[in-house]
Amino acid sequence: MTDIHTEAGVRETTEGRVFTVTGGDWDEIVAAAAGRADDERIIVNMGPQHPSTHGVLRLILEIDGETVTEARCGIGYLHTGIEKNLEFRNWTQGTTFVTRMDYLTPLFNETAYCLAVEKLLGITDQIPDRASVIRVLMMELNRISSHLVCLATGGMEIGSTTLMIYGFRDREIILDIFELVTGLRMNHAYVRPGGLAQDLPSGAVDQIREGIKLLRSRMHEYDKLATDNPVFKARLVDVGHLDLAGCMALGVTGPILRSTGLPHDLRKSDPYCGYENYDFEVATADTCDSYGRFLIRLEEMRQSLRIVEQCLARLEPGPVMVADKKIAWPAQLAIGPDGMGNSLDHIRNIMGTSMEALIHHFKLVTEGFRVPAGQAYAAVESPKGELGVHAVSDGGTRPFRVHFRDPSFTNLQSMAAMCEGGQVADVIVAVAGIDPVMGGVDR
Amino acid sequence: MSGVNGGHGTNGSLPAPRGDNGAAGREEIIGVRRGMFGTRGSGDTSGFGRLVDPVVLPGGSPRPYGGWFDEVADELEGALEEQAEAGHGAGPADAIEKTVVDRGELTFHVRREHLLQVARTLRDDPALRFELCLGVSGVHYPGDQGRELHAVYPLRSLTHGRLIRVEVSAPDADPRIPSTVAVYPTNDWHEREAYDFFGIVFDGHPALTRIMMPDDWLGHPQRKDYPLGGIPVEYKGAQIPAPDQRRAYS
Fold this sequence. Notes:
The complex is a heterodimer. Chain A is of the alpha+beta class. Chain A folds into two domains: 1-37, no CATH class; 86-327 and 369-436, Cytochrome-c3 Hydrogenase, chain B (Orthogonal Bundle). Chain A has helices at residues 3-7, 26-36, 82-86, 94-98, 106-121, 129-157, 161-182, 204-227, 230-236, 244-250, 255-258, 266-269, 290-314, 344-352, 355-366, 407-412, 415-419, 424-434, 438-442, and strands at 8-13, 16-21, 41-46, 58-64, 67-74, 191-192, 195-196, 333-336, 339-342, 374-382, 385-393, 401-405. Chain A is globular and about 85 Å long. Chain B is globular. Chain B is of the alpha+beta class. In chain B, strands 3, 4, 5, 6, 7 and 8 form a six-stranded mixed β-sheet that branches. A two-stranded antiparallel ribbon of chain B has the order 1-2. The chains are: A alpha+beta, B alpha+beta. Chains A and B meet through helix 3, helix 10, strand 10, strand 11 and strand 12 of A and strand 1, strand 2, strand 5, strand 6 and strand 7 of B.
């Protein structure tokens, strides 16, 4: 009984006795705490600073021995008010904000936002083919990098550090491509309303080819390491069970929904960015558990590699921004002595030869374009599920309201359904299978 | 399409087009925009300072809506009509304020009293089957007198591969909207979010508490009358005002 004072701090509160646990043998702590409490019921606060909770997620677990009897989430620790901030910036600046929501899927956030703005503007049909192909290419690479982080952190949380090292090693290949194409490894602001910030730089296509060759050669390593590994399977199989009815009721989409056997994928059912022109399969499983979700993510990475290859084959020279000069950002970016910026030739041209071009440039950059009043909903299939954007315009140069329906937020609600009645250790696996990213959950 | 219309015709229960409804067709004015360049308190040298431009959201659309929109509207109105005739629930004219088709999207503006009935019908009717609710998005229109707070529900049907939107409004003085958690449990957190950010009270929600902001927070941050905040910062020798203090062009 006295041991508990060395292992854990104890203090009395109005809600009962509170133990602060930072380490040690869990069984002993539980036994000691249970012995001291009036009943067997213990409430455990896991997080918000626990390494297995994917950022600042707080799990509130009511446990009876090793069994979780009730589970709730506390969220909001990473709320940054991005939706509110968008209302004070112009429509183009919005991409710089939304890319920071779910920081593992920045290109999906940007694309979904831009699709909504383009729908409001009524220019969806005018987006150049090359821009759409590059959007698809970047999104599919992003899907692989997001799934790799999911596998890596999920592996680390159950003690498989090799899976973690492999995942982050391979993600680096994709981040290098992103850095070459957009200038940044994360938070790209690369997809803009009307098209893209800039075309692929020289050498990008070659590096993407090399990258996908390398990634393809390494895909089997995950199979060899995890797929048939009995320890890995023992931790994942039948854990985090959620069936189709549960998914529908809770609005769950993405790999969790597909692990029930329903091949619902917006890229097939409601195509955008020309996805109907690509040849790929929707991965499903029929196990409704974390292991099925793991297999789906592996297969989706393979399918994404296929799509990326098709994108490279479909790339035709052409513009990457709409022709409408009232919307297209007038920049022509180039690498200068102090980094990337407007090309000096372009500046010389607008400053030296055309007063109208200068005025136009100034107006479009400081004021932005106007978007006709109304509302639109655009959705993309992000690695986590349906990422929807509800954008409202009042006809001004700034969004009136932008709401992100982030799949992490909705999917995280299923945590209680997946974890209650299971073991404490399985909570970690179930949450890792949901793959919540708190930047997206809290926005 | 014709088959569906024909089916209704033989029953003699084809609902009256929404265009006959007084509310339909009326555009929604949510504000007035003055001037062009965001200047306040100085002389009007441009001549554009006296521009007055009402901000108008698209109003109700006349039939036909086009594509499968008519089919969904017919089915929904027919189902509501049947429920009204059977004596439980409101008919389409009472429940649906107006139907808007804009930018290729179908929106039903539903009176809040009848939201649950409409949601249940949309989910359960075999011809509708909107199984998946994609959350609740609150919108605050301070200029929309008597309808300041809107809750927007995108609904997706996996069975039929369709996407529609249901919109409900409530006045600021009485910000109450029935909770849809009983029909779409996914809206539990979404309604808490809309309550947290807009102060919309969802009647019947199992535990309507704040979700993002701390429990003891005052005010609802995403309402238009809630300031963004921020401080001026110095950049390359110049004082840059906080984002909400900068010139706005809209």
